[in-house]
Amino acid sequence: MSSPLKLGVAGLGTVGASLVRLLGENGEAYERRSGRPIAVAAVAARDRAKDRGIDLGAFQWFDDPVELAAKAEIDVFVELVGGAEGAALESVKAALNRGLPVVTANKALLAHHGVALAKLAARKNTVIAFEAAVAGGIPIIKTLREALRGNMVSRVYGILNGTCNYMLTRMEREKLSFEACLAEAQRLGYAEADPTFDIGGFDAAHKLTILTSLAFGSEIDLESVFIEGIERISAEDIEAAAELGFRIKLLAVAQRTESGIEQRVHPAMIPASSALAQVDGVTNAVAVDTDLLGSILLAGPGAGGNATASAVLSDVLDVATGARIPTFGVAPTGLVPYRRARMRAHEGGYYIRLTVHDRVGVFASVARRMAENAISLESIVQRKRAGHEADAEAPVILITHETTEAAVRKAIDAISRDGHLSGEPRMIRIEPLD
Amino acid sequence: MSSPLKLGVAGLGTVGASLVRLLGENGEAYERRSGRPIAVAAVAARDRAKDRGIDLGAFQWFDDPVELAAKAEIDVFVELVGGAEGAALESVKAALNRGLPVVTANKALLAHHGVALAKLAARKNTVIAFEAAVAGGIPIIKTLREALRGNMVSRVYGILNGTCNYMLTRMEREKLSFEACLAEAQRLGYAEADPTFDIGGFDAAHKLTILTSLAFGSEIDLESVFIEGIERISAEDIEAAAELGFRIKLLAVAQRTESGIEQRVHPAMIPASSALAQVDGVTNAVAVDTDLLGSILLAGPGAGGNATASAVLSDVLDVATGARIPTFGVAPTGLVPYRRARMRAHEGGYYIRLTVHDRVGVFASVARRMAENAISLESIVQRKRAGHEADAEAPVILITHETTEAAVRKAIDAISRDGHLSGEPRMIRIEPLD
């Protein structure tokens, strides 16, 4: 019989507690699947006395994750502390310095220090596994790093933030305003008291940088991500989208273009009849476009203790069966610098909603500004608002054919300067799906 | 620098030729991703002179795949010959007997001989990889065998046959009859001259047995699969399904029940608003329900030279990086015998379409037969057929609440005997999705 694989688990929040419980309950099955017993040997957390619903008596206890990583008698270090710096970073470094494989769910740590840590792991001839860092229980890391190794990726994109998707789904179904929906999401625990990290698109951006590196073999570059959150999406936009055959999702997209790689997080309109558009609530989904496959889609739970623990377990069992894949799919010295494509050069269709004073000549003026910027229109319609028959303000919705971000911005600026608008113009990018 | 991994490729059809071409074109990228060069060393096919658009000059040639597997100087044997017996089986055995890892796309071989071959591989301390055998470019084998190793699966199901899905999609979109659609699919090359293997559900059944074994750690049992093809699906059923909020797909389902594991392939109604229902044309999709994840869905191309080659390449690169996972996820001696759940005990909702003589008392009689078999009805509606106002025959559509297959069959038999039917009764199972 093989000797047990001894884990050191730092961080006993929801995911850490799930992990320890599952290893206790399903040990026999995991041993059958990995060829050797898996055992927790040491744990670290802040408060030893806290009731987590699991018995920690058999494990060596550390107050300090860094000390656990540096000194505990373990074969694998599992980092579930969280945060890009401090104990998370120092404990991972300590474990790698000992040559221990590291399993982590920490997207922020990887987005900020991924390449440096990958280099350290390679020097110490060990690995960092991080399936749980992106899209929870969806095996997108394994898919990009292993299953698609024969492919050249042209785009990876998806719904990576459950809070935003939950809110957009409820806004659509119940015709709620953004503000009402946010309050409700906070009440139900789907949004934080300070929701900026989620609804501002920053959480999705962290995850995107990791997918970009895996998909394109490039170094991580968080600073270069174009980020726009869902704060300005209105019930009116969602309704107009539905009438036009679209749904609005917060998408994170990394895409190879002629001028470099676009990394962007923003609300996007996608065809309502697509599989991605059916991904509702807190569910996540990731699609990958490649040369050999066309497009594949993975959807599943993006968060939660058990779903995240499932991903951590998959990494632990991979380590147990001897998997030794470089952190970002290629040796870290083989990662190419990230070459940024400017957002102004982004090409695509656009939805533009203008609130105009209802007077003669407005349509003609708007159409002229579009033409001046070489934007051709698929449609231009004036929406009648129910119960506002005598309204002096009317929304005008434009759908453009493919054009550039720069042209759209210039046209909207010009229209604003013309003085026809009675409200802020709104623009939402249309993402073509395969 | 590492020594190259030398491949022997038996079978140079669409997939084999794609594989050889891709290894030539992308060798540098694959080396970066696997840490060592990958090189074709030997090939086997029937006709050496045939133009496959690739240069075979540098490779050792074999007329006989078995001889290649037994004698060529290679590190990995790639079996793309096809067929459950003969050269495919003998060559795989020969390679395993030498301790060589085998990569295969051959679902029939695994469905018939998978367990015996897994045992041989384990004895020889080597592996069989077969990502390409099920759902082409979708990494469902890797997902079940590796990514979900921490989970207990309760159901795995999906759209595994592109021909059937293509036909059902066109029947729905263009309101075609089954016969017209089949003729069209044959003309376009989406269906074989003898389409029985696809439209009869047998291809999906082969693939399902492999997923069952991976999902439940059980031995493969092809004989036990309940199989019903799409031959009897009519445009009328598809239209009625749409009106009721469903779409019809040929599903392959393996499900743990109290009495054992159901393995079934049959047309099924699924909610039209689900992501799975949007999987159209030749696209495949697989969903997995587990204890930790709830449900995840993978969708992508299920066939084609490049998509299948992508899966083969993923296996080859896994072998190159040293992956050593048992064939069906656990040591073959650890596979449990397949315990069959009887189809008559299947529980679910049913769609039943009866063509009845339009006379007094028919509704009451049908309703009584249902009640006698303890079947409660969600709805019972008589459909008016356009242009058949004066029709003496009218279709009656019943949707049942959850009941058993045995009860439904008994009820339909009784209704048939009552003499009210003027046409064959039709029944389609409703598959609940998570």
From TrEMBL, chains A, B:
L-homoserine binds at residue 192. Pathway: Amino-acid biosynthesis; L-methionine biosynthesis via de novo pathway; L-homoserine from L-aspartate: step 3/3; Amino-acid biosynthesis; L-threonine biosynthesis; L-threonine from L-aspartate: step 3/5. Its EC number is 1.1.1.3. The keyword Amino-acid biosynthesis applies. Residues 351-429 form the ACT domain. Gene3D superfamilies: 3.30.70.260, Dihydrodipicolinate Reductase, domain 2, NAD(P)-binding Rossmann-like Domain. NADP(+) binds at residues 10-17. This is Homoserine dehydrogenase. GO terms for biological process: methionine biosynthetic process; threonine biosynthetic process. It is an enzyme of class 1 (oxidoreductase). Belongs to the homoserine dehydrogenase family. PANTHER family: HOMOSERINE DEHYDROGENASE. SUPFAM superfamilies: ACT-like, Glyceraldehyde-3-phosphate dehydrogenase-like, C-terminal domain, NAD(P)-binding Rossmann-fold domains.
